[in-house]
Write a structure and sequence with these properties.
CATH class of one domain: Alpha Beta
Number of strands: 16
Strand order of the largest sheet: 4-5-15-10-11-14
Helix content: 40-55%
Strand content: 15-25%
CATH topology of one domain: Rossmann fold
Distance between the termini: 38 Å
Number of helices: 22
Structural class: alpha/beta
Largest sheet: 6 strands, mixed
CATH architecture of one domain: 3-Layer(aba) Sandwich
Length: 498
């Protein structure tokens, strides 16, 4: 399988080239030239397999320049039993009726990003050996909270790599901040920026495509790559858990092979739901992909109207991993839906960069709306959803998952489409203890420290506290740097000691 760029469809690279490079030279994102097709028989045959074997079945179709031994090394290492608190890796839990929660947060950082970022360092090291001529790969990450910690944990002390993470100084939860600033590892560094996630992400992209900076790195035998979902190696592992969830629903007797399901995803950068779209295009019987946004509802507006407009007020919400106004992976969807038209993508991305907005053709948005539905959930509804899910069904969910549940419930009311549904749960509720506890207590916020909040939430809910979060209590803060977004490139060199 070969990969091309969303902004230049004459490009052809292998999987390992796409993963090691992270982003195409002209700023486009790598996408497969064609998608593999899975028959219903092939999908059904995966039901009896472990998560690791399901992952290999899907990934070998995309990583065709990896040997079977290399694939085994990557997947077995990523999803080793001691790294995940559930033997299922990504278990599906029925909450009630046709509502099924796909719990993607049983990994070492208690967020869905672990599903990809435990695998990406393995993919990256194998890819680098094939394509990067012994260079040190500098992983540059902008994070709205979860990606940063998951990437740091995945890449810590990985040979021939360095990882630098930038996060918005006031845009992550106290637990997320603590996870990053206490990170262990000789090859890691973390810095806050004065700005929001979009500022960090835009600066990272401009650093990636800056020829002068790349040349300075090359002199030191270094090259940039990405652990954000702009890297294909971050996105491809996410396709796996949709196939796995479908197999689990068959196994649980909730659907028969061939039955359609709906998928609901709390969405910020559009990578998680795009992976569901790829799974559908490969043959997984998904009827509708429901995109759930928080108050920063730029994606909801786009999917309903065809206009993408980031020129709006930015809200810092209780679901910070979705506080994003530039959803990078939407570019990949636009490329596929426009018939692989890189000229159209270039025009749209140029308009977004210049004017902060673009409008797609009526034909294109109609095509997109056949696959996707969208809705958003404000802060009041997040609190109400957390409380009613716990009171009515004894299920404790975090703020991001609550956004998805609320949007799903409204979707069913509006459409009557209540077929079996998978809702992505993207983080442990204990990563957002203050917000979840406040919701359970009907809006009253106890004046407690972060870890006292954790203990109180545990007492109120009787849900287990994940071990990795418990262990943070006595960890020493290592990273305290803060910079302006305009100075991120200088900070990169400082953190690399260059």
């Amino acid at each position: 399988m070969l990969y091309t760029s969303t902004r230049d469809n004459s490009i052809r690279v292998t999987a390992s080239q796409a993963i090691a490079q992270g982003i195409s030279e002209e700023g486009g994102l790598f996408v497969p030239c064609e998608l593999p097709k899975f028959s219903l028989d092939k999908i059904t045959s995966m039901t009896s397999l472990s998560y690791i074997e399901r992952a290999k079945t899907v990934l070998r179709e995309f990583l065709t320049d990896f040997t079977e031994e290399e694939l085994d090394y990557c997947v077995n290492g990523a999803y080793a039993a001691e790294k995940f608190s559930s033997s299922k890796i990504a278990p599906v839990v029925n909450v009630h009726g046709n509502e099924n929660i796909l719990e993607l947060w049983h990994g070492p950082t208690c967020a869905f990003k672990d599903m990809a970022l435990q695998l990406l360092p393995y993919l990256m090291t194998v890819s680098a050996k094939k394509t990067a001529d012994g260079k040190t790969i500098v992983i540059l990450v902008a994070t709205s909270g979860d990606t940063g910690k998951a990437a740091l944990e995945g890449f810590k002390n990985v040979e021939n790599t360095k990882i630098l993470v930038f996060y918005p100084v006031d845009g992550v939860s106290p637990m997320q901040k603590l996870q990053m600033t206490t990170q262990e590892g000789e090859n890691v560094a973390v810095c806050a920026i004065n700005g929001n996630f979009d500022d960090a992400q835009s600066a990272v992209k401009s650093i990636f495509t800056n020829d002068e900076i790349k040349a300075q790195l090359a002199e030191k035998n270094m090259m940039f790559s990405s652990a954000n979902s702009i890297n294909w190696g971050r996105l491809v592992p996410q396709i796996v858990y949709y196939f796995s969830a479908y197999c689990d629903l068959i196994e649980q007797g909730r659907i028969k092979a061939g039955d359609e399901i709906n998928v609901v995803v709390p969405t910020g950068n559009f990578g998680n739901i795009l992976a569901g779209y790829y799974a559908k295009k490969m043959g997984l019987p998904i009827k509708k992909l429901v995109c759930a946004s928080n108050t920063n509802n730029v994606l909801t507006d786009f999917l309903k109207t065809g206009e993408y407009n980031r020129n709006r007020k930015f809200y810092a919400t209780t679901s910070p991993s979705m506080d994003i106004l530039i959803s990078s992976n939407l570019e990949r969807l636009l490329y596929h839906m426009s018939g692989e038209d890189s000229n159209t993508v270039n025009e749209l991305m140029s308009a977004l960069s210049k004017d902060g907005k673009y409008r797609v053709s009526p034909q294109l948005i109609e095509k997109i709306q056949e696959e996707f539905s969208a809705g958003y959930c404000d802060e009041k509804c997040v609190d109400e959803t957390i409380k009613h899910n716990f009171d009515d069904y004894k299920y404790l969910c975090d703020t991001h998952t609550a956004v998805a549940v609320d949007v799903y419930e409204n979707y069913v009311k509006e459409t009557g489409d209540d077929i079996p549904t998978v809702i992505d749960s993207t983080a442990s509720p204990y990563k957002f203890s203050k917000s979840v506890l406040t919701a359970l207590l009907g809006g009253k916020t106890p004046s407690l420290s972060e870890f006292d909040m954790v203990d109180e939430l545990n007492k109120v809910s009787d849900f287990d506290v994940p071990k990795p979060l418990k262990a943070l209590k006595d960890k020493k803060v290592r990273f305290t740097d803060v910079c302006d977004k305009e100075n991120m490139s200088e900070m990169v060199f400082k953190l690399l000691n260059l």
